[in-house]
Design goal:
Blueprint (H helix, E strand, L loop, with lengths): L3 E12 L2 E12 L3 E6 L5 H8 L5 E8 L2 E2 L5 H6 L2 E4 L11 H8 L11 H10 L1 H5 L10 H12 L6 E5 L7 H16 L3 E5 L3 H7 L2 E6 L2 E7 H5 L2 H8 L4
Parallel strand pairs: 3-8, 3-9, 6-7, 7-8
Antiparallel strand pairs: 1-2, 1-4, 4-5, 9-10
Helix pairs in contact: 3-6
Keywords: Amino-acid transport, ATP-binding, Cell membrane, Membrane, Nucleotide-binding, Transport
Family: Belongs to the ABC transporter superfamily.
Protein name: ABC transporter ATP-binding protein
Length: 241
């Protein structure tokens, strides 16, 4: 069994008067791609934001690489080697693709100071980033913005990449490109946690899976086992994969 890079134990999150997470238990094995599935409103995005410290856990424990990060500030969490791509991608529309990348490269003050070898690797994953290097990010298509968002998250080496619905609203051809890119990222040793609604995306990429409902994880196991059990799919998700 793989060592768990990230674990959540009994995590509760309140947002104002609302109790969103009701004791989430989640394990993300090192070097694997974990899918976080569930119906709309199940608590998936809240779980990601709680991991990143954007919303604070009111109870429970979050550990990353053996360190307790439950009450850590977001900058410290990011500094430990966790990158987060939110559902809205967080692109700076008025800046160029290059400027968006430079902002994320904390060790560089100028584009020429960015790690050229790493940039070339990123360009091989996401050719659109290189093609539109000097274009305003706001002019990119939805798929190109998603590629930029992921590229920006990995402009520096990361141990864990967390991405919220990377395939949302994308054309099938772009989704296939994203699947290939995530597969290569995983092969490079990056641990990945993905929230996803596209079931084909989940089936093709996932090693392990956790399914959420009403603010708790109601199922955890191998993605392959879930993909092969149609009755369990209906029970957990209300649909067949």
């Amino acid at each position: 069994m793989s060592e768990n890079l990230l674990t959540l134990a009994g995590v509760h999150t309140h947002i104002g008067a609302y109790h969103i997470l009701h004791g989430v238990d989640l394990a993300v094995p090192r070097g694997q791609l974990t899918m976080l599935l569930g119906r709309n409103g199940a608590g998936k995005t809240t779980t990601l934001r709680t991991i990143m410290g954007l919303w604070r856990a009111s109870q429970g424990r979050i550990a990353f690489a053996g360190q307790d990060i439950t009450q850590a500030a977001t900058p410290r969490i990011a500094g430990l080697g966790i990158a987060y791509v939110p559902e809205n991608m967080g692109i700076f529309a008025d800046l160029t693709v290059k400027e968006n990348m430079l902002l994320a490269a904390r060790g560089a003050r100028h584009a020429r100071q960015m790690d050229d070898q790493r940039l070339q690797w990123i360009f091989s994953l996401f050719p659109a980033v290189e093609k539109f290097w000097n274009h305003p990010a706001g002019k990119l298509s939805g798929g190109q913005k998603q590629m930029l968002a992921v590229a920006r998250a990995i402009v520096e080496p990361r141990e864990l990449l967390i991405v919220d619905e990377p395939s949302k609203g994308l054309a099938p051809a772009i989704i296939n490109n994203m699947i290939e890119a995530f597969a290569r990222l995983k092969a490079s040793g990056v641990t990945i946690l993905l929230v996803e609604q596209n079931i084909n995306f989940a089936k093709r990429l996932g090693d392990t899976v956790a399914v959420m409902d009403n603010g708790v994880v109601v199922h955890a196991g191998s993605m392959r086992a879930l993909a092969e059990d149609e009755a369990l799919q209906h029970e957990l998700l209300g649909l067949a994969l």
